[in-house]
Amino acid sequence: MMKAARLHQVGAPMQIDAVEKPVASGQDVVVEVRACGMVPNLANVLANWETWYPQMPLPPRPAIFGLDPVGIVHQVGDKVMSVKPGDRVYVNPGRACGGCRFCTSGQPQKCDHWTLNGYFGYNQNSLRVFERYKQGGFCQYLEAPANALVKIPENVEFAQATRFGYLGTSYSALRKCGTLAGKTLIINGATGTLGVGAALFALAQGIGKIYAIARGKPLLERLKALDPARVEIFSNTEGSSGEWIKEQTQRLGADFMLDTLGAVADLSSMKDAMSGLRRGGRLVNIGGTAGDLPVDVKWWMDEQIELIGSVWFTVAEGYEMAGMFSSGAVDLNVLETQSWPLSDINSGINGAANGNGGFTSYLIEID
User: Is residue 359 helix, strand or coil?
Assistant: First the structure.
C-alpha cells in the first residue's frame, strides 16, 4: 500500500488515503515520487472545470491529481529498455494511444486520446486513459509508460524539475515560431508562469528583443533584469500594448507573439497585443484564455498573420530542454519554490499563486 491524496468530491478537500501501490509490467514503469508541481490555479480548476468545460472530463473520483511528478525509477516492466531503477526522472503526464499516425510521427497532442494525466482530458476517450493510468503525482508511487520519462540532469534539483510542464509548454510554443535568433517577440502575460519560462528560453536562443507585456510593474522590472538590453517592458494598464510595440519597432511590429494569459483573462488584452505583430507575423496561443475573439479577418488575410494553438510538449522536447539546463544555457536558479508536504496538500492548493508571479514554482513534496 501507499499514501495518496485523493479528491472524492468536487468542492471537498482532498483526503490522504491508503491505496494499492502500482506494479510495473510490459513497457510501463513505476516511479517513486519525490515531488510534484502544483498548478497555481488548481483550486479554481477543481471547483469549476466541469462547469467551464463539460466536454473535457476530469478523472473519475476518487482521483489522484498531480500534473508534474518527479522522482526515481522504482521498478520497470519486462519490456523496458530505456530506463533503469535508480534513474532520476520527470514524468511527462501527456498520454495518447501510442499507435495512430499522429503518435507515431511525434505529434501525440493531435491524437484523439490525448490526455493530461493527473489533470484533465480533452474528450471522452480520456476516460479510457484515466482507467489505464490511475495515478497523478500526488502520491508515493505512480505507474507511467517508459516513453513518458525525461531523465533529469544532475545539476537540476527535483524541486526545479517540477516546473518542466510549464517550461515545456513555453519551449514547445517557441519552437513553433521558428528561428528566434535576431528576431523580435511579444510575450503577453509575460510575468506569469508561462511567460517567464518563454523569456528564459527565448533569451537562450538568441532572440533580438522581447516586448514583455503584463499588468504589474515590479515583476516586469524583475523580468527586464534577466537581460536589460534585450527585454523591454510595458504595463497594459497604461494604454495600448499594440500601439506601444509599433512605437518600439518604427511601426513595423514584432515577428512573433506568445499569448500566455490564463483561462479567465480578458481577451481584449490578447487582441490589443496581437495588433503589434508585423506583416507575416506568427501568434502562438498557449495560456488557455477562453471565449470568442472578434478579429477583422480581412486584416488577418491582408497582413498574412498566422495563429497557432499549442498544447503542452513532447518527451523529445523535454530532452532538448534538459540539455539546455545541463549545459547552463538556461539557468533555473532564477526561479524560487514554495512547497508543502503531501499531508498538508489542501494548504498548498489554497496557498498557491501567492508568490512572485512566474518566478515562483509551487510543489508538493512526497514523504
Answer: helix
Q: How far is C-alpha 112 from the geometric centre of its chain's CA atoms?
A: 20
By C-alpha distance, which of 155, 182, 260 is closest to 214? 260
Query: What is the average per-residue pLDDT within 32-41?
Result: 94
Mark whether 259 and 175 lie in a shared domain: yes
Are 188 and 135 members of one domain?
Answer: no
pLDDT for 353 beyond 80: no
- 199 shares a domain with 91: no
Whole-structure pTM value: 0.96
pLDDT tens for each residue of 121-164? 999 999 999 999 999 999 999 999 999 999 999 999 999 999 99
Looking at the fold, whether 71 and 133 belong to one and the same domain comes out as: yes
Q: Which of 69, 92, 116, 73 is nearest to 366 (CA)?
A: 69
DSSP annotation string for 277-303: EEEEEEEEE-S---S-----HHHHHHT
Looking at the structure, tell me whether residues 256 and 173 fall in a common domain.
yes
Chain length of the chain: 367
Domain that residue 153 falls in: 2-163+335-365
3-state percent helix, strand, coil for the chain, nearest multiple of 5: 30, 30, 40
